[in-house]
Structure formats: structure tokens, C-alpha cells
Amino acid sequence: MKKILLTVIATGALIALSCTKDPVATETFIREDVVGEWTVNQVAYSGEMPNPINPSALMQFSGIGTQLYGKINIYEMPDTGNLHVDFVANLNTIQIPVSLISGGTWYLENNDSTLVLDNDSVSYAFKMISGLPTQQIWQTSFMQIPADSSYWADIDLELTLIK
User: Integer distance in angstroms from the first to the last C-alpha of the chain?
Assistant: First the structure.
């Protein structure tokens, strides 16, 4: 009887040790998970801009960015960060370079569902779509007005980040 009881206890202990809890994705930023160096490995985009053929009309666009370069670094004490995301948006026959570069202080708001990166002249707000310790999806919107062009574009981004 003692052998059976010891076998049951040992088996139960092995089962308990072998069961791992996978992290559950969250829609809020968790400080210890968001801090670090992230690589943007995919960017989905959508938006609108003046039609180059008829500037009084707007054209819609969407897709997955190509020629992607993306790094986001979030530090604490002090709570600072920087981001650099470059990609090409394909608008039918036109390829538009898109760039989002900033740095400054960061903070969380809206019950930690939004991370704001503020450099005093412009703020970018990122909404958490799905957060895990090593993979997250953030959403943001911004207007791009290139210095050497007459067009503007309102762009919504969904960034997939890997730590």
C-alpha cells in the first residue's frame, strides 16, 4: 500500500511540475513586459490621402508594409523611449515611403491600455491590441506630411513587435 501511495504522490508531483502555464494575451500594457528593445516584424496599414490624379478626391489604401525597418526601445527610470519605423506602402501603382520616428518620455493611460510616447512637440499614442511578454501588437494613427512633397496621408498602423 505504501508503494502505491508513494507512486501516486510521485506521479502527481511529476504532472504538476510538467504543467506550465502559458501567458495569456492581454489588452493592457504591463510595465515589466513592455520595457525593453523590440523589433517590428510586420506593419499593417490603412488610411486615406489626396488622389494624385484628382487632388480634390480622397483615395483609400491598405496593405502590409514592405522594405520594413522597425525598432522600438522602451526604458524605465527615467521612463524614456524611442521608435523608428520605416516601410513602403503600396498604393496600386504608387509606392509611398512611410516613416515614424520619435523619442521622449513615455507613460501609460486609459487603465494602462494606451502607451503615450511624448517628445514635447508631438505625442504618439499606442493602443495595446494583444500583449505577451515577447510578442505584442500595438495600434496607432498619425498624419504624414513629407517635407519634399505636397501630399499628406492619414495612416492607421498595426505593429507586430517581437522582443
Answer: 51
Q: What average pLDDT does the segment 68-80 reach?
A: 97
Sign of CA dihedral 96, 69, 158, 156: negative
Cα dihedral sign for 163, 76, 24, 17? positive
Please identify which residue in the block is written with the cell numbers 512633397.
149
Instruction: Report in angstroms the alpha-carbon separations of 65 from 3, 40, 55, 75, 88.
Output: 63, 11, 24, 27, 5
Which DSSP symbol is given to 28? S
pTM flag (> 0.85): no
Q: Which residue ranges form the domains of the chain, and what is each CATH number?
A: 22-162 (2.40.160)
Which among 110, 126, 153, 122 has a CA at the least distance from the CA of 38?
A: 126
- The pLDDT score that the predictor gives to residue 153 is 87
For 41-62, what is each residue's pLDDT tens digit?
999 999 998 887 888 899 899 9
Q: What is the dihedral of CA 150, 154, 155, 156, to 10 degrees?
A: 180
Of the candidates 57, 51, 54, 25, the one whose C-alpha atom is nearest the C-alpha of residue 130 is 25
